[in-house]
User: Which sequence fits this backbone?
């Protein structure tokens, strides 16, 4: 057990180091930074003090899309590369089990994703802070340091928008969603060695996952009137694909509505459960694969 | 082969269990979103183009709604009011729980559109213009009322509806009712306390206004300088006592009070 954990940790560390050396990651990070910085240009439009909602939407979308690419490319490039370069044979000739390899790879990628998210979140907070300061300073300057009641309320709204602790809740949910995408990507990488195949399959699951709840509702409806073929198809989608609508609460949080941490914990638990099962299945399939 | 069968069994067992779990999570989500958790309604799919539908499906509803809002801003600048109304509808369909879209959508219709058709360079006599202006005010009011049904817990939409009754329809009693409703919600701005009294005065309900101001004064023990602006409350009480000709000995503030 102790040995197994040590093996996993070493593989995770190596995966992280290897992933961080990929140039594509830096390109993606630069794009994300440009989008985050660009979000402050929303001030050019008149949103009557609600710019923060728009800034957050753009920033969360940037973090989600770029994070999605980091997760997808990370898993789709690293595991097939091990097979292509035949480094996996050196690794597996040592007393390393195949499941340790899979779990290690996944943890390394999760570590990379976490670092990426932390960096982006930090920069996003700086952009928000700078925008809030500029708006508040404008009001203070126009009111010559003595803001009216309405202006004070505006300043309070700016501060509430910029330093909303619920942003961490939304970021946690984005992170969980990306971890789920990563594990799906890892799963496909145990089935095939083509990067394009892995990326497209994961993307399809991601898109279908946003409609999974519709399929599930239809499948479970007592009198849906569907043919047996449709029923089998809907059942397959419901049973295999994760429900990405679960993470829809991110929109709710950005929209300024209160979401309990209890709901977030339940989603994290669901993500955790899915991850464990997906890693288990991936390990079994990888174990049965002839290398 | 054995391992593959084991993997399949694991998937099936997990799948059967996870469906129930997902249903529970969906139920929780419905509670949080007050029944507004529609993955993609037919109405929405019909209204949106392919690009926006894909964005919404990919979990970027917020961004899709923001892009539509930017188009709405262009339509507003070009004074294409029908397009403004249609885009506002799309925004609230995409993000029904965001008060901003209801609030600003209604403002565009009840203020911008109605003023533009009433005073702008459009054809038609004064009656026609007034009729059109009224139509846009009603459209704005309808948007706010629908918004209130979707997010009843937010004070802002009640406040805006009160503003609309006050400034666009001249219905001060209804405005006062809306401000009262707003005040019952958390995070309502404190100045709305005074807006209720002010509306009652404007509606010529002096007695009701007087009682309201007195109740407001008595609702607090400390009357220092703070955001409640007690000095203004006191002024209103004293002014109404003069208007209502209340005898000096029955007045709320005796000459010795400061």
Assistant:
């Amino acid at each position: 057990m102790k040995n197994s954990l040590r093996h996993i940790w070493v593989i995770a560390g190596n995966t992280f180091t290897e992933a961080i050396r990929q140039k594509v990651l830096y390109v993606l990070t630069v794009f994300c930074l440009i989008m985050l910085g660009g979000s402050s240009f929303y001030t050019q439009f008149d949103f009557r003090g609600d710019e923060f909602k728009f800034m957050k939407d753009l920033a969360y979308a940037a973090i989600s899309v770029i994070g999605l690419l980091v997760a997808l490319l990370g898993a789709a490039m690293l595991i097939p590369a091990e097979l292509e370069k035949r480094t996996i044979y050196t690794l597996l000739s040592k007393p390393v089990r195949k499941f340790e390899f899979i779990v290690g790879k996944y943890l390394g990628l999760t570590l990379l994703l976490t670092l990426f998210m932390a960096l982006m979140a930090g920069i996003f907070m700086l952009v928000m802070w700078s925008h809030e300061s500029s708006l508040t300073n404008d009001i203070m300057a126009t009111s010559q340091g003595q803001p009216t009641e309405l202006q004070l309320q505006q300043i309070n709204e700016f501060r509430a928008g910029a330093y909303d602790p619920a942003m961490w809740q939304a970021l946690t949910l984005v992170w969980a969603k990306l971890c789920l995408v990563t594990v799906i990507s890892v799963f496909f990488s145990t089935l095939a060695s083509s990067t394009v195949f892995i990326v497209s399959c994961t993307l399809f699951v991601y898109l279908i996952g946003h409609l999974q709840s519709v399929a599930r509702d239809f499948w479970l409806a007592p009198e849906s009137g569907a043919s047996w073929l449709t029923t089998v198809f809907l059942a397959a989608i419901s049973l295999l694909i994760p429900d990405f609508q679960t993470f829809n609460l991110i929109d709710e949080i950005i929209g300024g509505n209160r979401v309990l941490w209890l709901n977030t914990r339940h989603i994290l638990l669901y993500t955790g459960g899915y991850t464990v099962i997906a890693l288990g299945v991936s390990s079994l399939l990888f174990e049965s694969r002839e290398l | 082969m054995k391992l593959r069968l084991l993997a399949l069994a694991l998937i099936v067992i997990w799948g059967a269990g996870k469906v129930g779990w997902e249903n529970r999570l969906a139920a929780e989500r419905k509670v949080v979103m007050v029944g507004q958790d529609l993955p993609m309604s037919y109405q929405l799919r019909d209204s949106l183009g392919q690009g926006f539908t894909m964005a919404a499906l990919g979990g970027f509803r917020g961004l899709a709604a923001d892009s539509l809002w930017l188009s709405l801003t262009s339509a507003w600048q070009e004074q294409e009011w029908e397009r403004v109304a249609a885009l506002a509808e799309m925004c609230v369909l995409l993000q029904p729980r965001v008060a901003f879209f209801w609030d600003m959508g209604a403002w565009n219709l009840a203020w911008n559109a109605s003023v533009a058709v009433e005073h702008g360079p459009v054809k038609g006599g004064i009656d026609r213009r007034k009729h059109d202006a009224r139509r846009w005010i009603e459209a704005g009011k309808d948007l706010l009322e629908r918004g209130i049904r979707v997010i009843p817990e937010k004070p802002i939409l009640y406040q805006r509806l009160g503003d609309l009754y006050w400034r666009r329809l001249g219905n001060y009693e209804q405005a006062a009712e809306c401000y009262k409703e707003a005040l019952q919600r958390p995070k309502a701005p404190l100045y709305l306390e005074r807006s209720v009294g002010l509306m009652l005065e404007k509606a010529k309900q002096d007695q009701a206004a007087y009682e309201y101001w007195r109740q407001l004064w008595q609702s607090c023990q400390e009357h220092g300088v703070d955001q409640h602006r007690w000095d203004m409350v006191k002024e209103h009480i004293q002014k109404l006592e003069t208007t209502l000709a209340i005898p000096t000995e029955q007045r709320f503030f005796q000459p010795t009070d400061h």
Observations:
- The first helix of chain B runs from residue 2 to 32.
- Residues 70 and 87 of chain B are 10 Å apart (CA to CA).
- Chain B has a mean pLDDT of 84.
- Chain B has twelve helices and no strands.
